[in-house]
Amino acid sequence: LTMLSQLHNQPLREFQEALEQMYYQVGADDVARSAIQEQFQALKGLFISQIASISVEDIPLDYVSRWQSLKTEIYKQIRLLENDLMLLQASRSPETAKFRQKGVCDRIGTLINYCQGWLQQSQEQP
């Protein structure tokens, strides 16, 4: 039995793809700050509607605490990402913007790693 069925892994995969798109968009030299804000709201919506809504009843008992930890971590990182984005929006100097941009990319990278880790683990289950 896999940790999450393929049905549940799909939203996590979509979330990871959305994160990757955002990562490349934020990493671009001519980053469009308003577009990033829109993309972030879509990402947050995807997390809330598709991932946070997965019930623990749908998860094998052995994995419930791990799944809840993962969801909590992702949610925490999303809130921190929201702050990072606000700081990026408020950046006045190009140097500050560059620094904040890197922070945003690092945060998105952390979220991508969480998704990859979970998906990889669930593939390795018998």
Main features:
126 residues
Please provide a written account of the structure.
The chain is mainly α. Helices cover 79% and strands 0% of the residues. The protein is built from four helices and no strands. Helix 1 runs antiparallel to helix 2, helix 2 packs antiparallel against helix 3 and helix 3 packs antiparallel against helix 4. The longest helix is centred in the C-terminal third of the chain and has 31 residues. The model has no long low-confidence stretch (mean pLDDT 88).
Helix content: over 70%
Give a quick account of the main beta sheet: strands, pairing sense, barrel closure: none
Shape: elongated
Question: Structural class of the secondary structure composition?
Answer: mainly alpha
Whole-number mean pLDDT: 88
Distance between the termini: 7 Å
Cα Rg? 16 Å
Task: Provide the β-strand percentage band.
Answer: under 5%
Q: Which assembly state applies to the chains in this document?
A: single chain
SSE run: HHHH
The number of distinct β-strands equals 0
Low-confidence stretches: none
Count of helix runs = 4
